[in-house]
Amino acid sequence: MYDIRSDAQRDMVERQIAARGVRDHNVLRAMHDVRREDFVPSDLVEFAYDDEPLPIGEEQTISQPYVVALMLEALELKPDDRVLDVGTGSGYAAAAASRIARSVFGIERHARLARAAAERCRRLGFANVRVRRGDGTLGWPEEAPFDAIMVGAGGPDVPAALRSQLAVGGRLVIPVGPARVQQLLRVRRTGPETWVEEDLGPVRFVPLIGQEGWATDKPEEPLSLSELVAESAEPFESVRDVQLDALLARIGNARVVALGEATHGTAEFYDMRARITRELIERKGFTVVALEADWPEAQRLDRYVRGTDVEPHPEEAFDRFPTWMWANEQVMSFVEWLRSHNHAISDPSRRAGVYGLDLYSLHRSIAAVLRYLDSVDVDAARVARHRYGCLDPWQQDPAAYGAAVLAGRYEACESSVVAMLTEMTRRRLSLASQDAERVFDAERNAELVAHAEQ
C-alpha cells in the first residue's frame, strides 16, 4: 500500500522545505511529524503534499508547506513558548507549531472552520492546541502575552492589538501589503514600547479580514446555541487527568470563584467541582468553601474537616430537599480529602473550612443559639428563649409565618430576633475570649434567624 507519510511527505520536507533553505531541525521534524493529508478536504488528499496551497472552504486555503515552514522558522520557537495562530484555517500550521512550542492558541473568523479545526486537533492528539472563533486582528487578550504570533492572512499593516499582545522579546510574523502580493514581516518586540521590523520577502496570502485588517461586506452568520457551546467548551478525557492551568490562569487573583448552577447535576459535574475546588485550595490558597446549604448543616462538615469544638446540631445533616445535592459520595470523598489536607497544616488559620449560605434553617439555627447560650450563660439563654418564642409556632413552616404577617393576622417577630442578634453582637468580644469559634458559629446562627424572619 502506498504510504503517503513515508514517501510523499518525506519528499515534501526534503525537496520543498529543506532544499529551499529551512535549517531549523525542530521545524523540519514538525513538518515531517504532522500529516498534511489530515488537514485537507478528503477529495484533495492525493494533492496533500504538492508544493501549493489548497482550498479548504469559506474561500480560504491551507498554506503552501514551504511557507508554513518558513514562518515557523522565522518565529524562532522554543519549547516553553506560547504561540498565537491568527487565521487557523484547517489547523495545519497550529498543529505543526504545537510539536515545538508548549501551547498554541488558534483564532479563526469562520465558525465552521474553527469548529472543524478544534475537533481535528483534538481527534489527532494535538492536546496543546486550542481553537476558537473570533476576529484574529484583535488577538486573544485573555491569553496574552504571547512569545510568538503567526498570521496566516495578509493585512494592510500590522494590527496594533497583535503588537501589544506580543511579549517583550517575542516575535510576530505577518504578511503585509495589498491583496495580491504581500511582504512577509518579522516584528520583534524589544521593549515595552519598542518594536523592530524585518522584511523576509514576498508572499501571497488570502486577505486578513477584521477590525484591524481589511473590511468585508459579508456578514458573519450568527451561531446557534449548540455551536456557541461547542466553540467555547474545552474538551478533556477525564476529571482526574485534565490540566487546569489555563482555568487557574483565567481566575488570576480573584478572591471569589463561583462554580455555578451547572454543578447541580451529574456525578461527573460533582467530581469536576471537587477537582477545581482542590486546585483552588492547593494552588491558590483559598480557605473558604461556601455551599448552597444551611449554616448548621455545613457546620457539621466544617467541624469535621477543621477539627473545631463547635457542637454539631443533633439532627441528621442534609436531610431536606434536595438531599442529593450534598449527601452523596462525591461530596463525601471531597470532605475526606479536605480533612486530610487540613491535618497536614499546623496553623489553624490556614486551614480551609466549609460554610453554608442558605437561609432556610430557622429551627436548627434557633436551637444552635440556645445550645450555645445554655453552655456559657444560662440567664442569656432564658432571654433568648423568650425572644425566639415568638417564632415557636412557625419553626417547622416559616412560609406560613410570612403569609400570616403579610395578611395582618399575626404580629411580626422582627424586633425580637433583631434584639437577640444585637445582644449577641454586643457581647461578642467578651464571649470570644472563651472560644472564638463557638461564638462565631452562634452569632452566624443568630444572624441567620434574623434574615430568615425577614
Give a structural overview.
There is one protein chain. This protein has 454 residues and is α/β, with parallel strands linked by helices. The protein has helices at 5-17, 25-33, 65-75, 92-98, 111-124, 160-164, 225-232, 245-251, 267-284, 295-306, 323-326, 329-343, 362-376, 378-388, 398-406, 414-426, 428-432, 436-453; strands spanning 54-57, 60-62, 82-86, 103-108, 129-133, 146-151, 166-176, 182-191, 194-203, 288-294, 353-358. The strands form three sheets. A seven-stranded mixed β-sheet has the order 5-4-3-6-7-8-9. Helix 6 (160-164) links the parallel strand 6 (146-151) and strand 7. Helix 16 (414-426) packs antiparallel against helix 18 (436-453). It is elongated. The termini are far apart. The model has no long low-confidence stretch (mean pLDDT 89).
Low-pLDDT runs: none
Shape type: elongated
Instruction: Report how far apart the termini are.
Output: 79 Å
Question: Count of DSSP helices?
Answer: 18
Q: Give the averaged pLDDT, no decimals.
A: 89
Specify the structural class.
alpha/beta
In spatial order, strands of the major sheet run: 5-4-3-6-7-8-9
The largest pleated sheet is described as: 7 strands, mixed
| Topology order in helix (H) and strand (E) letters | HHEEHEHEHEEHEEEHHHEHHHEHHHHHH
- Strand count: 11
How would you summarize the topology of this molecule?
Elements: H1 5-17, H2 25-33, E1 54-57, E2 60-62, H3 65-75, E3 82-86, H4 92-98, E4 103-108, H5 111-124, E5 129-133, E6 146-151, H6 160-164, E7 166-176, E8 182-191, E9 194-203, H7 225-232, H8 245-251, H9 267-284, E10 288-294, H10 295-306, H11 323-326, H12 329-343, E11 353-358, H13 362-376, H14 378-388, H15 398-406, H16 414-426, H17 428-432, H18 436-453
